[in-house]
Give the backbone structure.
Amino acid sequence: MKTLLVVDDDESIRNSHQKLLKLIGFSVTGCRDGEDALSKCREELPDGILLDLNMPHMNGQEFLEHLRKFPGGDKPKVLLCSGMFEESLRDLAARSGANGYITKPVGRAVLEQKLREVGLL
């Protein structure tokens, strides 16, 4: 079973994404911010990460910069998430080392499509 890390400072969104990903068939862990996620990644790298862009303490872009420097940190497939729909955010996601960008709220069909696109399904 593939592992996914859901990183979002909004507990209700994090819980919603975790439930959805479990229904799809992933083993899922949640983190409240980039610092918490880095700590989890130091213990064990997940197969994929659903990563909120705007968070306190360490935002998604900062987290990605740190993650990609880890030994093996290039392996997790990362979908950067935001409630904002702007083309510049897709470019930011690509420049930051994300494998894709997804707009919140995330529905099951769109999420499954994005997971397929990055090779997690």
The chain has one domain: 3-23+33-117. The mean pLDDT is 91. The helical segments are 11-24, 34-43, 60-67, 87-96, 108-117.
